[in-house]
UniProtKB/TrEMBL annotation:
It comes from Halovenus rubra. This is Cation:proton antiporter subunit C. The keyword Translocase does not apply. It comes from the Archaea. One of its GO terms (cellular component) is membrane. It is a multi-pass membrane protein. Its main location: membrane. Keywords: Membrane, Transmembrane, Transmembrane helix.
Length: 127
């Protein structure tokens, strides 16, 4: 267990962020807290992608740039740029999603005067 925490700490941090973010989305009735939980959940996924793309030393060499020379052996470790590209794209989508969600929350607060989910359901049921 100690070895897991010292060598794979990014996976442990991923699990903690994922659980906390999911709990905030499900258990909170405040809409802003739900958006914060969604951002924590997204950050956990980003951390997972980057952690899985990390190359440890292999036969004395660490991961290299993915430009493969002609004399390279089949087992040489090369870092894949794909996880970083996916994470960068997901960050842009996440920022856009957060901006739209916060804009909707501002409109909801202006219309109903509350950000509590249960109160909003009651007000909408009365309409």
């Amino acid at each position: 267990m100690t070895e897991l925490l010292t060598t794979r700490y990014t996976y442990v941090l991923f699990a903690i962020l994922l659980v906390v973010g999911l709990y905030m989305v499900v258990a909170s009735s405040n809409l802003v807290k739900k958006i914060i939980g969604l951002n924590l959940f997204q950050s956990a996924i980003f951390l997972f992608f980057v952690s899985t793309a990390y190359l440890r030393e292999f036969k004395g060499e660490s991961g290299q740039v993915p430009i493969i020379p002609k004399k390279a052996a089949a087992y040489d470790p090369y870092a894949s740029p794909l996880p970083q590209v996916i994470v960068l794209t997901a960050i842009v989508v996440g920022v856009a999603l957060t901006a739209v969600a916060l804009a909707l929350i501002v409109r909801i607060y202006g219309e109903y005067g509350t950000l509590d989910e249960e109160t909003l359901r009651e007000v909408r049921a009365d309409d």
